[in-house]
Amino acid sequence: MTESPAKWTLVIHGGSGSMTRQRLSKAEDAGARAGLTAALAAGSAILREGGTAIDAVEAAVKVLEDDPHFNAGRGAVFSWEGVNELDAALMDGRTRAAGAVSSVTRTRHPIALARAVMEDGRHVLLSGPGADAFSKEIGCEQVDPAWFALPERRRQLDEIKAGGGFDSAMKYGTVGAVACDAQGHVAAATSTGGLTAKRWGRIGDSPLIGAGTYADDRACAVSCTGAGEVFIRAAAAHEIGARVRMAAEPVADAAAEVIAEIDEMGGMGGVIAVGPRGEGGWAFNTSGMYRGVAREGHDSIVAIYEDEG
Ligand code: ASP
């Protein structure tokens, strides 16, 4: 994507991976596009009315969390123990306020819980049973864990546990959104079930501020997807912002540079990034990334494969 200034911009992703036209069924392709379109509509409705970037990214991610096509909320992958443990984070570029949760099991919208952590303000990252308890205490919508659990995800877990051929590169289905609002403020949000068969309380990059999620009005907002361990080591989301802020790199170039770094480190994945003039886009080193963009005065675009959008 090229850098073209816009008053407001919303970029979303639904994960990167080895998606190709041959590998995705027509139904999977159409279902994912419909989900991305609905998420763009929810977020851009807010931005069009003059709403804030932070409200827009939360609204877009909530739609994707409810959509079983993506590995977040309903449709999240299973841990080794057969539990859906959800991670999410969001960050407001105006103040660099941030909130995050990891390994929550009963909150319908982990991104809303991350927002509540941010607004509560005492902490930035809550995890596990404590985060579940905080969620209940503050009245975040609770669901039975069965709400998240889908048979196809269970099958993928069983296949991995049996040492079978589940394609690990297909597993990245994390969702995220970055936005620039009409006031020129940016925000980022990311939500995920993490990796299939994750063990021992593993936490990926998504809920780690600076790794999978970052937003700073002085630079840009970033949400990542992919091999979380490598994104953590690269401090990927912060690194993109640092390149923009300190080396004056265009947002799209900084995103591409950091994906090149991830590639050199042996990681696969993608990022979306947007700056305070609506500049930016996406970069990925996989064959596909579920993604979409809505900008003031432009038609929305959704795309999956490398050669689109
Ligand atoms: N980055 C996520 C994680 O490592 C996975 C993904 O993007 O799907 O938890």
Order of helices and strands: EHHEEHEHHEEEEHHHEEEE
The ligands bound in this entry are: aspartic acid
CATH class: Alpha Beta
Largest sheet: 8 strands, mixed
Low-confidence blocks of residues: 1-5
CATH architecture: 4-Layer Sandwich
Shape: globular
- Number of individual domains: 1
**Structure class:** alpha+beta
Strand content: 15-25%
Q: Looking at CATH, which topology would you report?
A: Glutamine Phosphoribosylpyrophosphate, subunit 1, domain 1
Oligomeric status of the shown chains?
A: single chain
Helical element count? 8
Number of strands: 12
End-to-end distance, in Å? 7 Å
| Average pLDDT rating | 94
Explain this structure to me?
Keywords: Hydrolase. It is built from eight helices and twelve strands. By secondary structure, the chain is α+β, with helices and mostly antiparallel strands. The chain has a single domain, classed as 4-Layer Sandwich (Glutamine Phosphoribosylpyrophosphate, subunit 1, domain 1). The strands form two sheets. Strands 4-3-2-6-5-1-11-12 form an eight-stranded mixed sheet. A hairpin with a 4-residue loop joins strand 2 and strand 3 (97-104). The structure holds aspartic acid.
